[in-house]
């Protein structure tokens, strides 16, 4: 099987802990146990067959071609030798370009697409160590109301990327740091942390003309930061689409977890809608809670028909999925098997089994078996994404020759 390089275990720390436990007694372990690392996340790939994919024979491929060809167009523009990412398991752009050209000759017949995939791709089951199941959530394109001018009720700004913000992909410097990123600003030749959410809320960027639109709800703006893209209904009747431009480098903190720990929302009732309801019902506490998530996103105006994902392509509702780039290449097809239910009717659970494209990433998307389904824009997308918090499985679809190489590794 294929196993990616995960985080290296800190044996020195573990050994030190054991020595201290021996010297001072077991009570000391209780004080230092938070320092003991959880098992490292490790991508494990195991070649499979299409007959193993739940629901494969029922796939209708509706709208899938649109998502597939958006990735193909991006791959076609790359040099043939350019690596696709994912520790090499996805090969190079040259491995995918002929397949994309073959697909362009297909009709819209689902049977033709199914035959094509079964002929040129091999499904590869994705594990985290020996665990085949993971968490799958949803996201959407947020809806807001705004103005180009600061005036009541439009008092919450959306910011352009500050020119001094430096974002660093650490994997470009150290192979073992692949998939990790930091951001900050340069001060006296040294990269230092950028302002966090609380500092920015309190005016750290004021007076620099970085505010390009003002919205009427701090809560709506907060959720826009989480979703990464949105449509702003302007006070002059026009619409403005905004998308992710950069992030301040501070880690993402899930405020829903804090609401559960404080006893404000029962774990089984937690959803995006439950968080919003609490924030709006507790305006005196809302700012402090939102500021616990120090991560802050900067935006840009988009002239596209939809949000742009990390691969640089327009996302397709219910066919684009965000993954962790530490483990995954972008632009590859995946088969997802999970369940969904609208937040408004959580008992109405349905299977969600379909072919998707890995085209985006997200600050909260961490791990090999982890994904975030893009649902689109509007009330339906909001309802479905807010209610999606499901266990599921995922398969990567690789060209036969690349999957054969993984199989060869497994048989050693």
Task: Explain what the structure shows.
The structure is a single chain. The chain is of the alpha+beta class and 412 residues long. It has 3 domains: 2-35, no CATH class; 46-137 and 309-410, RlpA-like domain (Barwin-like endoglucanases), CATH 2.40.40.10; 146-302, Barwin-like endoglucanases (Ribosomal Protein L25, Chain P). It is built from 12 helices and 17 strands. The protein has helices at residues 11-24, 27-32, 64-76, 93-103, 110-120, 197-201, 218-227, 255-261, 272-281, 283-290, 379-387, 400-410; strands at residues 2-3, 43-47, 121-128, 134-147, 156-159, 166-169, 181-187, 190-192, 211-215, 229-234, 239-247, 297-302, 320-322, 333-340, 350-360, 370-377, 389-399. The strands form 2 sheets. A 6-stranded mixed barrel has the order 4-16-13-15-14-17, surrounded by 5 helices. Strands 6-7-8 form a 3-stranded antiparallel sheet, with no helix packed on it. Helix 3 (64-76) packs across helix 4 (93-103) and helix 9 (272-281) packs across helix 10. The longest helix is centred in the first third of the chain and has 14 residues, at 11-24. The protein is globular, with a radius of gyration of 23 Å.
Number of strands: 17
Largest sheet: 6 strands, mixed, barrel
What Rg do the Cα atoms give? 23 Å
The count of domains is 3
Q: Quote the average pLDDT.
A: 89
Termini gap: 9 Å
The percent range for helix content is 25-40%
Spatial ordering of strands, largest sheet? 4-16-13-15-14-17
CATH class of the largest domain: Mainly Beta
- Specify the CATH homologous superfamily of the largest domain: RlpA-like domain
């Amino acid at each position: 099987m294929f196993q990616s390089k995960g985080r290296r275990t800190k044996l020195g720390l573990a050994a030190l802990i054991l020595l201290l436990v021996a010297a001072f007694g077991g009570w000391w372990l209780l004080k230092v146990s938070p320092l003991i690392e959880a098992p490292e996340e490790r991508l494990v790939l195991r070649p499979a067959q299409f007959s193993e994919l739940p629901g494969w024979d029922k796939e209708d491929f509706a709208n899938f071609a649109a998502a597939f060809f958006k990735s193909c167009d991006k791959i076609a523009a790359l040099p043939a030798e350019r690596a696709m990412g994912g520790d090499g398991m996805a090969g190079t752009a040259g491995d995918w370009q002929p397949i994309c050209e073959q697909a362009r000759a297909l009709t819209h017949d689902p049977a033709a697409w199914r035959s094509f995939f079964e002929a040129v791709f091999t499904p590869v089951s994705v594990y985290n160590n020996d665990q085949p199941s993971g968490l799958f959530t949803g996201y959407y394109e947020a809806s807001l109301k705004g103005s180009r001018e600061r005036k009541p009720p439009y008092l919450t700004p959306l910011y352009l990327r500050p020119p001094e913000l430096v974002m660093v992909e650490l994997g470009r410097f150290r192979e073992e740091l692949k998939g990790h990123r930091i951001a900050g600003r340069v001060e006296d030749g040294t990269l230092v942390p950028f302002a966090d959410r609380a500092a920015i809320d309190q005016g750290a960027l004021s007076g620099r003309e970085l505010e390009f639109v003002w919205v009427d709800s701090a809560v709506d703006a907060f959720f826009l930061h989480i979703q990464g893209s949105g449509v702003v209904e302007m006070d002059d009747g026009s619409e403005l689409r905004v998308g992710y431009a950069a992030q301040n480098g501070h880690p993402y903190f899930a405020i829903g977890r804090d609401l559960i720990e404080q006893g404000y929302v029962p774990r089984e009732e937690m959803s995006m809608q439950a968080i919003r309801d609490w924030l709006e019902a507790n305006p005196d506490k809302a700012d402090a809670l939102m500021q616990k998530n120090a991560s802050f996103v900067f935006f840009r105006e988009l002239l596209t028909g939809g949000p742009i994902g990390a691969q640089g392509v327009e996302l397709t509702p219910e066919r684009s999925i965000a993954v962790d780039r530490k483990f995954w290449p972008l632009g590859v097809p995946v088969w997802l098997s999970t369940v969904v239910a609208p937040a408004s009717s959580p008992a109405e659970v349905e299977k969600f089994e379909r072919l998707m494209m890995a085209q985006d990433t997200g600050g909260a998307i961490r791990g090999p078996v982890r994904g975030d389904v893009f649902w689109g824009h509007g009330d339906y997308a909001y309802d479905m994404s807010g209610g999606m918090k499901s266990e599921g499985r995922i398969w990567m679809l690789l060209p036969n020759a690349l999957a054969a190489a993984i199989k060869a590794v497994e048989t050693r």
